[in-house]
Amino acid sequence: MTRKVILDSDTASDDTIAILLASKYFELLGVTIVAGNVDYNQEVKNALFTLEYIGRQDVPVFLGSQRPILGKWRTVEEVHGSNGMGEWNYPQPTKQPEKEHAVDAIIRLSKEYYGELEILAISPLTNIALAYLKDPNISKRIKKIWIMGGAFSRGNTTPIAEFNFWVDPEAAKIVLNAGFDITLVPWETAELYGVLSEEDWNHISRINTRLSDFFIKVNKTLKEYSSKNQGVMGSIHPDSLTVSLAYDNSIILESSMKHVDVELCSDSRGAMLVDWYNLQRNMVNVEIVLKADNKRFKDILFSALY
């Protein structure tokens, strides 16, 4: 039986490939949009175009929160391009978003697919936190949440904070402590195991399909940013890694069950707090992915581009 998922997205570059992977390997019930990477309306346009381009016009797009809970954040066009799609001047999509709000769609689908629905949360967690605040019983109905977020110490937005947790740390704190079954992929894991090298990019170019061309165009700025600012000759794909290991759990080579929380204050805002020594006994709430199979991840990604 095909697993049923929602993908929660602040759609830009790697998010679009995560959408592609989710559409290939799961029954994708919807894409919900949340404030994050770039201008919100641009994120919506990116998601609509992506689904149209990959031939999945049937997948609904639900509009969610246009700001974090406290509204303090900045977009990161320098990572994804001014339009979030590597400056690709793609055509205006004809697909339209749904009228139902993303929070209501998440709650409704959790009831329709009680105990089956999984959420691929590759963005700030605002929509999911708001869904929980509106209907706390949702944590009993959702089968699993796969989260890309948090950093142990190598923040990619501040010296200590990863972008998704930094954008809306209040939402992250709410979701992490709401009782969901959570597997979390932190930034350092993605940085090590979600990497595509120059040779991988050459391989994608040689695939020479509409989808491989899509990959290259949307990730152009991401590759430039990764190479210039993150010491990677290639690109880092945390969202695609998260969707891939959700699909194939054998990609997870090592993980650890810990209590995880989020700092909300001052310069440490968005920092992930991990209780490595189980000081808060009986409070384990997250499986943290520590090591992953980079080759298996790439095999899954490359297969989706044919």
TrEMBL record:
SUPFAM superfamilies: Nucleoside hydrolase (SSF53590). The keyword Hydrolase applies. PROSITE patterns: IUNH (PS01247). This is Nucleoside hydrolase. InterPro entries: I/U_nuclsd_hydro_CS, Inosine/uridine_hydrolase_dom, IUN_hydrolase, Ribo_hydro-like. Keywords: Glycosidase, Hydrolase. One of its GO terms (molecular function) is hydrolase activity, hydrolyzing N-glycosyl compounds. It comes from the Archaea. Residues 5-299 form the Inosine/uridine-preferring nucleoside hydrolase domain. Pfam families: IU_nuc_hydro. CDD domains: nuc_hydro_CeIAG.
